[in-house]
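Cross-posted from the bioinformatics board.
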Amino acid sequence: MNGFNRRRAALCLLVLTLGLLCAVTAAGTLLAGQAMVTDFTRKNLPPCVPFLFGTDWMGRDMLSRTLTGLSLSIRIGLLTAAVSAGIALLVGACSALLGGWVDGALSWFVDLVMGIPHILLVILISLAFGKGFAGVVAGVALSHWTSLARVVRGEVLQVRAMPYVQVAEKLGLSRWAILRRHLLPHLLPQFLTGLVLLFPHAILHEASVTFLGFGLPPEQPAIGVILSESMGYLTTGKWWLAVFPGLSLVGVVVLFALLADQLRRLLDPASVHE
Amino acid sequence: MKHRLLFTGKKFFRMALLLLGVSLAAFLLMSASPLDPLQTNVGQAALGTMSQEQIARLEEYWGVNEPPLRRYLGWLGDVIRGDLGVSLLYRQPVTQVIGQRLQNSLWLMAAAWVLSGLLGLTLGVLAGARRGRAVDKLIRGWCLLLSSTPAFWLALVLLMIFAVWLKVLPSGLAVPIGVDAASVTLGDRLYHAVLPALTLSMTGMPGIALHTREKMIDVLESDYVLFARARGESNRSILLRHGLRNVALPAITLQFAVISEIFGGSVLVEQVFSYPGLGQAAVTAGLGGDLPLLLGITVVSAAIVFSGNLIADLLYGVVDPKIRRGAARA
């Protein structure tokens, strides 16, 4: 097993999960046209060889619908997680570096955002942006930054009190140099892991809000839309309409969670020698 | 004692300020919405056939043309007098709608809250105590899977298995259909709450279990546990005397932090099971542009979350002797 330690295993897993996610996104984008094709000669087919996930009441292929929905979810997840993490970095760093009343006000604001139950906040923001794509993206992006902002604030405060930063200040290094040379390298691993950990939440909330009717419009094959449509056909025994799309969503979210786990293992200095 | 009172008073003041902030934020978001409540509730076709006067009356009813600031101040003034306004969709006072819905939801959420706490704590302690073994791996995998599962899909799957396929549990609602309110028994209510409560408890459980596990591992690696082991204490006694006592504090934090998550889950779960609770009312109010009701629900749910945090803060002092003595000395 020499030469194939846990670090390398983690790296392999990381590449594998990334590849899988990219493949799903690419397949979904390519199949986007096919997801809309209706054919009434093949409606309500249970899973069989040409249609692995079955077809719905309009004869649409559920496999291509699911893949299109997943690729949409992944893209929205990436976008919202990136924006959210950016806000978290800004708020956390401002809070820790400026201190005083700015810190107090920002901490109060974080408490406020955390006090509204998450789904309710996403719904409110989505309404403010008029629902649809803009609504769901804004809703998820503007509501997920709070816990990461707290982490960033704590980290910055901790690093600033470290002896080597104090020495650097005494040596007359400019604030900017300290920020770039001492703070950023320390923050980056934490921040990246936090960013990747945001993906699963972002994807799940996007699907949930769309499911409730505050997100993507019903003509778009998003996972939330597919599942909310399937609700009407459950009691007639068309289980495949809900089971497979949901399972694939769970699969994608698990992949993202694994990705975050491997990334943390690679970036965390404490596990370098494993 | 004086310090405790001062501490509690300060917390209460902060909570009131936060609630004010929540109501303002929610109000601003709702009034910024470009969605026209007339279009959503009356419809384009019906609006086209109406006279100008009718439309004007409808606009006044939905409060479309009132300036937001005056509307908010008016609302705030009423709230201080204990009046949350009148729901535009249900045509009943908001307090009445929320009270009714909360009654249904509260039992559901309380059951899920207790269940997820007990399950999470047990599984977390078990996994932490058997770190690296098969049990630990199983519990961790299970938690990862559950936390990656959207609550509404879990609800759909359970509904399919137990209501459609096995036909042992009802497929929705809080009471049986076609039975008048007086003859609904407690058994009926429980029978209808089993599936939603079970689904809901699954949304809060993984977080509690995983955090408890981490904490348990920390405790078991500490010097005092090593010393206890050297003294010859049995594993059982180490777990009960040292493990559980030290895990109690973070467990309280987690248990009260999960309230917000369970409330969020209830919005989704109630929608799937058509359970007439607060969460379902929130969705109806949001889709129909019912500003007073949605505002009321947001404020009430935020008040529940903040009270949870406050209770957790106060409980620390009771549970942790360090905080208790620290406060007495200060």
